[in-house]
């Protein structure tokens, strides 16, 4: 009886670690995308770069508000080994960067 409980707790902890890692990747992707667009890279190139950094299947969007760029990354984290898929296991991040022309 103890072994199945320990296995369930271990799987849950590994899944929480995966969610935390995915959140960090989403933050990095948003930051990388916003920085790339702000320094003058093409938006589609910057979004592609963000999608490479973001968790698999994440959506990366960019909004240019004149003097600043906002990048938003939204994704889902599936359960360990695909055993279960919780709807609340979503990660998201937003980053804002001033455009190079506006900061000079």
UniProtKB/TrEMBL annotation:
It comes from the Bacteria. This is Pilus assembly protein. It comes from Nocardioides endophyticus.
């Amino acid at each position: 009886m103890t072994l199945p409980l320990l296995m369930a707790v271990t799987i849950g902890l590994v899944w929480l670690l995966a969610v935390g890692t995915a959140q960090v990747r989403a933050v990095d992707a948003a930051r990388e995308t916003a920085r790339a667009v702000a320094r003058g890279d093409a938006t589609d190139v910057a979004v592609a770069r963000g999608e490479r950094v973001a968790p698999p299947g994440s959506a990366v969007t960019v909004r240019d508000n004149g003097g600043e760029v906002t990048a938003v990354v939204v994704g889902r984290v599936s359960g360990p080994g695909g055993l279960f898929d919780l709807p609340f296991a979503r990660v998201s991040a937003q980053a804002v960067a001033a455009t190079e022309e506006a900061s000079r």
